[in-house]
Amino acid sequence: MAHDVSNDSIYQQVEAQACRAKSASIGLRTLTTGVKNAALQAMASALVAEQESILQANQRDVAAGQERGLSEAMVDRLRLTPSRIAAMADGCRQVAALPDPIGEVMKGWIQPNGLKIEHVRVPLGVIGIIYESRPNVTVDAAILCLKSGNAVILRGGSEAFHSNRVLCDVISRAAENAGVPAGAIQMIETTDRSATSHLATMNGLVDLIVPRGGGGLKKSLTAVATVPVIFAAGGVCHVFVDESADLKMASDIVFNAKVQRPSTCNALETLLVHRNAAAQFLPAICDRLATAGVELRGDAASRQVVPSMQEATEADWDEEYSALILSIRVVDDVDAALAHITRHGTGHSEAIVTENFRNAERFLNELDAAAVYVNASTRFTDGFEFGMGAEIGISTQKLHARGPMGLEALTSTKYIVRGQGQIRP
Amino acid sequence: MAHDVSNDSIYQQVEAQACRAKSASIGLRTLTTGVKNAALQAMASALVAEQESILQANQRDVAAGQERGLSEAMVDRLRLTPSRIAAMADGCRQVAALPDPIGEVMKGWIQPNGLKIEHVRVPLGVIGIIYESRPNVTVDAAILCLKSGNAVILRGGSEAFHSNRVLCDVISRAAENAGVPAGAIQMIETTDRSATSHLATMNGLVDLIVPRGGGGLKKSLTAVATVPVIFAAGGVCHVFVDESADLKMASDIVFNAKVQRPSTCNALETLLVHRNAAAQFLPAICDRLATAGVELRGDAASRQVVPSMQEATEADWDEEYSALILSIRVVDDVDAALAHITRHGTGHSEAIVTENFRNAERFLNELDAAAVYVNASTRFTDGFEFGMGAEIGISTQKLHARGPMGLEALTSTKYIVRGQGQIRP
After folding, report:
1. Does ipTM come in above 0.90?
2. A chain contacts of residue B372, beta-carbon cutoff 8 Å
3. Which candidate, A166, A248, A368, B304, has a CA 20 to 30 Å from the CA of A285?
């Protein structure tokens, strides 16, 4: 760890790593799937074989965290165990088993002049991944970048520094021994915060930054980044229970979307209920949610039905609670539901529960979001649940990748053209 | 034209237009292909029907340009004629005839739990197009945005102000009468330069900025934009004439790539010749190029073969001449050619002329560029030549769209999920 070096020297360190990554990316571009998969298997074995040194390094981070008074939840995110290491190794094997996105001919055709054109998938080049406390992201990010033919520069949270350093060392050594170019997997070893902003301005060396972290990281990166950035999303997700909904189904979906894992970005934050369903639906679902520990905040109309609820303020409609809190609003019809979501949604995941075909179609077609659902929980917006076999994050931006990002989100494309001497008339 | 308003007031004007565009984009999202195509046909007819007022407005711009001493080439870019207006109208009809990208189900499948997932193409929303002197871009940009279901905010060069205003008025009126939401096609009417930077920071209202202009525009936008920007590309393109090349074919390709339209971004800037082909190839091609008025700048080895050439400096290898100038370098082999292009190329279009299979494959696979060619002119990197039927520009960036950008580059995607009450276990 180099706390005391000058800003210039940090820039030079990071630049040297980026140059090394760029250079590795040239070899990675044409690395065969066989070599990449063998490397992933070797990484899995190395993680298990070198478990002891990983656990020892992790123990240093955990002890330091406890000393600094981290909450038990934070310490738990930090902590590695043999079974967590085994899970990382499994992750390597699972990514090895995924189809290689690189080289896919997405489209191929012959022009009237005989030019044979193929539109093929290629690696992006060099990807920077910036993340916070959980050390397993070190392995997750590295294996997705490797499988998609990219060099990766990892930048984890300082509280997991020793764990990340050993993990990166173990997997990069295993990869290199299996034929992956040196420099393909690197970690920024200074904990100085300026390293991140340096990385985000190295156009020409770094092709993409993926920050996996909270709003603070997002804000600070937006201000400085000139390299393209894909942010993992925040989500103010809605479920609209229509007049015609199967209310048993609606109750299960709302309960699942709110309670099953409230800290995730695809969890429910605001429940919208059709006026004609409110009297029948709200008392039972509110009971069920309250029993599960959910704090309920309703508008006037819903509090007429369930007076025990707190009053929702205007600010509640824009809040991503990421916790066991739910705001509830009664709306007149599907138009009012669409208007509310258009105004307050973040374009992540929105669901309608309905038996009405026309309302279902309108909801699917008129809302502008990464994922729109009829009669299913918003919690399914996830790379694994969508069958991608992997996930680097969920995007709510509209360019390049929207929704769950699998291996394809880490690729670019190029046109390959074969001719017989064609010139342009 | 409002030259004298305050910066705040310009911001408010632009924001009001962006809000109107955003609002139009909601209706555009679900506008049928039939209505969009009818609007495009109506725009074509209106351009022809209102030709007189268009020509009159254009005459004001041309006269003002001549008074301000614009070059004859610049004035010609500005000038509209009945045949140029007819060409714009044809453009509308051609875009009407293109397949609608919106609603395309790119992939659809059923998950093991019964969730039916579709990945579909949707509009981006609101697109800002910033361009320079040619007034036909007003129509080109508007029709591509309309066909792809996007609202557009146009910002043309001040020298074409009156022409652009009438064109925008004619086509937006025709579109609106045909059922397109009001506000779908708008033009920024202040010529104050700050309008552009305001537009480029309206996240949440503007989804994409496409600047079609030179390096100055690119630089000033990069500094301020927080909205995603896709730049039309610059290109330092290469042709490598390999040892085994058919030299007649090589001569035709090199001549075409350099001379056919030297101002374009896909024109040849640096010719690389295999050492063993130099003595036979260079004298004839240099003669042919010089006769066509091309200024030649060679390295030492090529000047040994053709001593009449100027000496190339190191700076020549990175220069986009966009003119009848060509730099020439002799290289030892395909490795040296790949190394030169990797170092000096801009990732636009690169070609090899060879009869050697292995070298052809290496060139195609190892180079990182939007388009790579074997035995064809780099001049084919173009939306029309690639069969897209339209082009909004050529991208050399790697995210979202790379290479010629057709209608698909103006779209995003979303996941549509239909269930029967699924919840996440």
Report:
1. yes
2. 414-417
3. A368
